[in-house]
């Protein structure tokens, strides 16, 4: 009964979870969504669409935030200034290449669009390269989850496979919650330290 409820949860909210996670660093969720596609709980087109839209919306939001409020945020909050300082070590001359690979540089996916926005990188150019990058990222990461599902089925068989998928999704939800909680706590501590 619990397994059936969890499967229903994945079927009902799986695409929303993929979309929300893709707004940030959603690799783990996308791999797990690929597993869920392999298991038949989600469709590949639904997962890919949710991930592409989430990735584009998230990166474009960071870019526009950098473009219109970046200087103000960097001056006001240490969180932004530390991230911007870290990203200064990244190549400046090949920003287009940086946009294409930013999704594969852990920890920089949200800050690179922000910094490009501050640097007054052309918005139309960012949108084009970001779209290409989102497609490549979704295909590579989402497909790897599907392939991983195939390998698991070969190794474990269909027995307990659905239970395995559910345990992974529950673990992921717990991990996502803890990550958000840590981020909020760290942000609050930084603000207290600045005051």
Q: How would you portray this structure in words?
A:
The chain has one domain. Helix 1 (2-22) crosses helix 3. It has helices at residues 2-22, 27-39, 44-76, 78-87, 95-101, 111-118, 123-156, 161-194. The protein has eight helices and no strands. Helix content is 82%, strand content 0%. The protein is mostly helical.
Secondary structure layout:
Layout: H1 2-22, H2 27-39, H3 44-76, H4 78-87, H5 95-101, H6 111-118, H7 123-156, H8 161-194
Protein name: VTT domain-containing protein
Pfam family, one: VTT_dom
GO cellular component, one term: plasma membrane
Total of helices: 8
Mean pLDDT: 80
Secondary structure: helix percent = over 70%
Give the biggest sheet. none
What proportion of the residues form beta strands (DSSP E)?
under 5%
Give the SSE string: HHHHHHHH
Give the N-to-C terminal Cα separation.
Answer: 51 Å
Which labels suit this protein?
elongated; single chain; mainly alpha; 0% strand; 195 residues
Please sum up the structure shown.
The protein is an all-alpha fold. It is built from eight helices and no strands. Keywords: Membrane, Transmembrane, Transmembrane helix.
